[in-house]
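Here comes an entry:

___
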Amino acid sequence: MNTFETIMSRKSVRKFTEEVISDADLNSILEAGMAGPSAANARPFEFLVIRDKHMLEELGENSSKYSKPMKNATLGIVVCADKSRIFPNAHGFSAVDTTIAAENMILAAWDMGIGSVWLGIWPDESNMENVARIAGLPDSTEPQHLIAFGYPEDPMPNMRGGRFEESKIHYEKW
């Protein structure tokens, strides 16, 4: 796929096959995550890769009310912010930086035929605490995104289209 096709056809996948994602594909996904820009090039992102089925099930059951798809994924990634690398006086920028990394990984995976779904944890403190506890994160690391990955159980979709809304575009002044 070209970039535009990848963006336009991507969908959230919540049901996965049991096919394992190769180490080479995982490395490509992680490389894509690290390729994005960050505020002042602080690069606060850290990635916890989870393949263990019991850990995936635990995250799926006890992270947040949105995390259920993690239970049948073959790969989970917790995108975190290293608090010591967050752009000074702008904590919120770390969420932008890690979101860019997460989206890059989701798009790179889709381009390789690997589905994913972003599962909300940030900014809900309770969800973040649950993930940090389950994953054994150090206090210096803040979980911000949880992503389930796997090969889609359903066939890949056609281009979605129909999401463009001219009424949401404004030029020069509102």
Q: What stands out?
A: The domain at 31-152 is CATH 3.40.109.10 (NADH Oxidase). The chain has a mean pLDDT of 92.
